[in-house]
Amino acid sequence: RPECQAWTGTLLLGTCLLYCARVSAPVCAVSMSQDFGWNKKEAGVVLSSFFWGYCLTQVVGGHLGDRIGGDKVILLSASAWGCITAATPLLARLGSAHLLFMTFSRILTGLLQGVYFPALTSLLSQKVRESERAFTYSAVGAGSQCGTLVTGAVGSLLLDWYGWPSVFYFSGGLTLLWVCYVYRYLLSEKDLLPAVGVLARGLRVPRHTRVPWRQLFRKPSVWAAVSSQLSSACAFFILLSWLPTFFKETFPSSKGWVFNVVPWLVAIPASLFSGFLSDHLINQGYRTITVRKFMQVMGLGLSSVFALCLGHTSSFCKSVVFASASIGLQTFNHSGISVNIQDLAPSCAGFLFGESRSPCVVGVCLGGYLIETTGSWTSMFNLVAAISGLGLCTFLLFGEAQRVDLSPTHEDL
């Protein structure tokens, strides 16, 4: 248990730094647009380019986590994305084609970060008991709100004092310090070298460990989990990418640290509470799938209602409240669909998790296109609500929590 607690705290910090690097571009989007002369579509290309790379390595990250260990995948990728993030301002100014170089930098960052959550899902599904999965995943997942909060607060100050490059230097440098800590105290050369050797030789899956994919994808519950996870990822990433620009343009006289901090300050306790509530209800005897569906009603259903409200108010205070409620409620997805994938198939949870998040780039691109075409932010928030509603209905109809990755002869549920 002491080792488990050490890893939980370390992975929470790792998730925090992952999002510090990830949201650096959204926080700096307005300043970079002014610096380089980008319009909305060009800014949308830069913001969505992260997800072009991100979606390509989701499945790879899950597969690697299932085969060589999620902890090793996370450390190797973090060392690379930390370097890329710290070097992003230099890459952006390599030549006159700022849009091209910035897009390339964000694609690389996305490629490297895409393996993180699938590898994390694989690690937790194999190491954490079912009765503790929701809280553990929610605690580690709270790092995403912590990272957004840190970059929103410290990044806004650095942005005002030293310019947008300082935000990238800050998040990249902290990531590299975290990598040094993990390498020195939790993993070592003897742990990493075998994993690197396996990668160099290519992954070969022994016959007795192969997953019955044909049987797996015949299950409606698997498709429901994949589609619902895709919906929650799309909705979250659209808001994550565009909310800073929404507030900056709709309320130009407002303080950046308010709208970049308050929603994520609300989301952290909401994430922890959702994990505690989920495990508590299951331990009290409620059916696992009932609890998972309740969490999704909150995470996809109620959160989308507050997202819709954002498009129909002209008050800054109300907008901050609605954004905080929507982001906070979305953390209930950690205790719903994210853990449901581990319920269904712990032997290949990383792969399924990665597969369900791969196409999320479409939502961010579409959001930017709608804003530029209609000239209204309401269309983007309507898109968030439509995506969330579709995922919720699918999960409520077909979602299950029984394990489906076992061979029929051993399936005793």
From TrEMBL:
PANTHER family: SOLUTE CARRIER FAMILY 17, VOLTAGE-GATED PURINE NUCLEOTIDE UNIPORTER SLC17A9
InterPro entries: MFS (IPR011701), MFS_dom (IPR020846), MFS_Na/Anion_cotransporter (IPR050382), MFS_trans_sf (IPR036259), SLC17A9-like (IPR044777), Sugar_transporter_CS (IPR005829)
Source taxonomy: Eukaryota, Metazoa, Chordata, Craniata, Vertebrata
Family membership: Belongs to the major facilitator superfamily. Sodium/anion cotransporter family.
Occurrences of domain Major facilitator superfamily (MFS) profile (ranges): 1-403
Keywords assigned: Cytoplasmic vesicle, Lysosome, Membrane, Signal, Transmembrane, Transmembrane helix, Transport
Membrane-spanning ranges: 45-61, 73-92, 98-123, 135-155, 161-183, 222-242, 262-282, 294-313, 379-398
Encoding gene (name): Slc17a9_1
Keyword Signal: yes
Protein name: Voltage-gated purine nucleotide uniporter SLC17A9
Catalytic reaction list: ATP(in) = ATP(out); GTP(in) = GTP(out); ADP(in) = ADP(out)
Signal peptide: 1-25
Annotated compartments: Cytoplasmic vesicle, Secretory vesicle, Chromaffin granule membrane; Lysosome membrane
Gene3D superfamilies in the record: MFS general substrate transporter like domains
GO MF terms held by the record: purine nucleotide uniporter activity
Function recorded in the entry: Voltage-gated ATP nucleotide uniporter that can also transport the purine nucleotides ADP and GTP. Uses the membrane potential as the driving force to control ATP accumulation in lysosomes and secretory vesicles. By controlling ATP storage in lysosomes, regulates ATP-dependent proteins of these organelles. Also indirectly regulates the exocytosis of ATP through its import into lysosomes in astrocytes and secretory vesicles such as adrenal chromaffin granules, mucin granules and synaptic vesicles.
GO cellular component assignments: chromaffin granule membrane; lysosomal membrane
Keyword Membrane found: yes
Main localization (coarse): membrane
Any single GO BP term: purine-containing compound transmembrane transport
Entry membrane topology: Multi-pass membrane protein
